[in-house]
């Protein structure tokens, strides 16, 4: 039997609850497809800070690197919000992404027919939306140097960061995006601010140059401010979007909210080789942590992405996705996606229902 | 009688049509309040490029600086989209903002009761939205140095920009925002990415420190990715938003689209002293230019902001705003805001109807 080592990083807040459920679903889906999954759990984020003094212990990074794929719950919480930068849970996450070299972050935002009413957009606008945001994840202003605090000519304090992209960083994320678009509806929209920023001018130039390698794909370009508008005006115009780290952070969250059900949305972060990182896009929701109220479906769907993009186990991935659809069709809903006429369940019970249909 | 010199910059595309209409409305509203307005028209943007070879001729900047306020139509168009950076219409606009030192960009996004159906958001979500985005306009990554193209250690081309803020730049925009919030509903939300960027950490620190000077104002902080979501999820939670140049570019456009009627939205850019710059937020719409189809109301409302924030002529400003409301109540609509049961009119006719009610 094929066997893989999976590192679980439950993290903070609702992370442990949703990861526990997703782990069971992963195991079963794998077993049914002849795949053995071995799990090890490591500390990450605020819980790692509390236990070890750092948000990403060396041992965690080493274990993640040595495994075949990493499933993360969520990190952060009010408790650590005012920590110094190197002691923030978020800094641990950024180091993990960099340490695993997962430069391509895939964030699907699809409106499920069962949940179209959850969107704040009018039904006719939301219905059928199916977007994939491909976000560059290990470059740009998140990692660019120089960065820090300084003093300007007037003796005043300054804070500064560098948005920088090298040609090869743009090329590799663009290639991923073209490939993703090819497996979808063949339309790629590259988002930048090339009317103002040199980093975006290079971005647009490189993406444009690559288009000839992907003759079947219809490439367009859009300024980021316009993209933020068009996602609200007519989200159905988008198939695949590719953009830099910071614009991707903003636009993927906007796109996810357009679906109205961010408790449902997974993400995959992959590199050229080595393990990928899979995580729900929602946060750690400290206010409902430990109350069995969290929606585990985003993490369960992240587990499906782990099987597909991380291990190449398409059949097991499909099994999980079909089980989620079936569970929704049966009317089970956690509080965040509940509507009258459906059956309100907690995190564990939702997991059990998915397990039954896997 | 009080008298003022106004520089008109019609610009490109539909700019000249909408500015012509707004000029007449300005004149009349001024005259009725005992204010004499003298106009001079100058070249700017693509039309300046075609006529003089540069997007912001020295003469235009000098005239703008010498006047009491500047009204801009719109700039840009496909024709100049692939120009080199220093020959882009947008570069002219950035130089104009810098040259006038208008560091505070006020962008209202309010859903008008008459136009609530124009929003793609559900009626109960859109109804009553009334947001003011205060965007820092002459700093940050738009102007930060170093910027340009370079070569990295591997001999690869790079493109880079610098996001940088000095303490005083943050303080002055924050003060404007606190003042704006005070005249509104007393709530200010500062948007940043302080979990990742040092420039944002300084931003948050300075804004927080200033709060004690404005005891009546309720200050909150939000990460930019969350703000992009919350604008879709529940835009009514926002009163005044203050943010940096690039986040403001993105979020103000998103907020404007939430109203569903960007053909209605004005903006004001003001500095510590000297003339302010007033412009509709819509673009030059080259596809409908010269066809008398454009909606002049955004420019007319920009003229009202010019009277209020640029000249301190509150009565004349109110006159224009009341006239726009009345004209909408009478059912007149340009194509962009038309709905069955209303009266479709062109740009000029809309202007005439507003003039009748001024
Ligand atoms: C937590 C934060 C550092 C992170 C980011 O900005 O990348 C998050 O917003 C995300 O999108 O995964
Ligand atoms: C045209 C462009 C340079 C400009 C900007 O990015 O500031 C525009 O998008 C705006 O918001 O006024």
Automatic annotation (TrEMBL), chains A, B:
GO MF terms listed in the record are: 3-isopropylmalate dehydrogenase activity; magnesium ion binding; NAD binding
Looking up Pfam families in the UniProt record yields: Iso_dh
Q: Which UniProt keywords apply?
A: Amino-acid biosynthesis, Branched-chain amino acid biosynthesis, Leucine biosynthesis, Magnesium, Manganese, Metal-binding, NAD, Oxidoreductase
Please give the superkingdom of this protein's source.
Eukaryota
Q: Which GO terms describe its biological process?
A: L-leucine biosynthetic process
Q: Which reaction does it catalyse?
A: (2R,3S)-3-isopropylmalate + NAD(+) = 4-methyl-2-oxopentanoate + CO2 + NADH
For this chain's record, the cofactor binding note is:
Binds 1 Mg(2+) or Mn(2+) ion per subunit.
The record's annotation in SMART domains points to:
Iso_dh
Give the Isopropylmalate dehydrogenase-like domain ranges.
5-354
- PROSITE patterns tied to this protein: IDH_IMDH
Q: What class of enzyme is it?
A: oxidoreductase
Q: Which cofactor does it need?
A: Mn(2+); Mg(2+)
Q: Quick one: which pathway?
A: Amino-acid biosynthesis; L-leucine biosynthesis; L-leucine from 3-methyl-2-oxobutanoate: step 3/4
Keyword flag Cell inner membrane: no
EC numbers listed for it are 1.1.1.85
* Quaternary structure (record): Homodimer.
What is the similarity comment for this entry?
Belongs to the isocitrate and isopropylmalate dehydrogenases family.
This molecule's function is given as:
Catalyzes the oxidation of 3-carboxy-2-hydroxy-4-methylpentanoate (3-isopropylmalate) to 3-carboxy-4-methyl-2-oxopentanoate. The product decarboxylates to 4-methyl-2 oxopentanoate.
Q: By its UniProt entry, which NCBIfam families does this protein fall under?
A: leuB
Name used for this protein in its record: 3-isopropylmalate dehydrogenase
Upper lineage is:
Eukaryota, Viridiplantae, Streptophyta, Embryophyta, Tracheophyta
């Amino acid at each position: 039997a094929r066997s893989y080592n999976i590192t679980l990083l439950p993290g903070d807040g609702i992370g442990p609850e949703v990861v526990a459920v997703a782990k069971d679903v992963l195991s079963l889906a794998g077993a049914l497809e002849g795949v053995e999954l071995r799990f090890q759990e490591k500390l990450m984020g605020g819980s790692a800070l509390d236990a070890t003094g750092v948000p990403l212990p060396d041992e965690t990074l080493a274990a993640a690197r040595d495994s075949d794929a990493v499933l993360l719950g969520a990190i952060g919480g009010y408790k650590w919000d005012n920590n110094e930068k190197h002691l923030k849970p978020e800094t641990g996450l950024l180091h993990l992404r960099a340490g695993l070299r997962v430069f391509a972050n895939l964030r699907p935002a699809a409106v499920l027919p069962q949940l179209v009413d959850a969107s704040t957009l009018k039904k006719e606008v939301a219905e059928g939306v199916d977007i994939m945001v491909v976000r560059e994840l290990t470059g740009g202003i998140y990692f660019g140097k120089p960065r820090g605090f300084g003093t300007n000519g007037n003796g005043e304090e300054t804070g500064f960061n560098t948005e920088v992209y090298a040609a090869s960083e743009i090329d590799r994320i663009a290639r991923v995006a073209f490939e993703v678009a090819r497996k979808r509806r063949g339309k790629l929209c590259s988002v930048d601010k090339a009317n103002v920023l040199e980093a975006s001018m290079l971005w647009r130039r490189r993406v444009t140059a690559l288009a000839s390698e992907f003759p079947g794909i219809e490439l367009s370009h859009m300024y980021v401010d316009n993209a933020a508008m068009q996602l609200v005006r007519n989200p159905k115009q988008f198939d695949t979007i590719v953009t830099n780290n910071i614009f991707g952070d903003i636009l993927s969250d906007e796109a996810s909210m357009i679906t109205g059900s961010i408790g449902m949305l997974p993400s995959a972060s992959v590199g050229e080789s080595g393990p990928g990182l899979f995580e729900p896009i929602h946060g750690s929701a400290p206010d409902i942590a430990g109350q069995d109220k969290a929606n585990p479906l985003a993490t369960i769907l992240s587990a499906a992405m782990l099987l597909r993009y991380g291990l190449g186990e398409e059949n097991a991935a499909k099994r999980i996705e079909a089980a989620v659809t079936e569970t929704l069709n049966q009317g089970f809903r956690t509080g965040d996606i509940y509507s009258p006429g459906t059956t309100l369940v907690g995190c564990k019970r939702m997991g059990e229902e998915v397990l039954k249909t896997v």
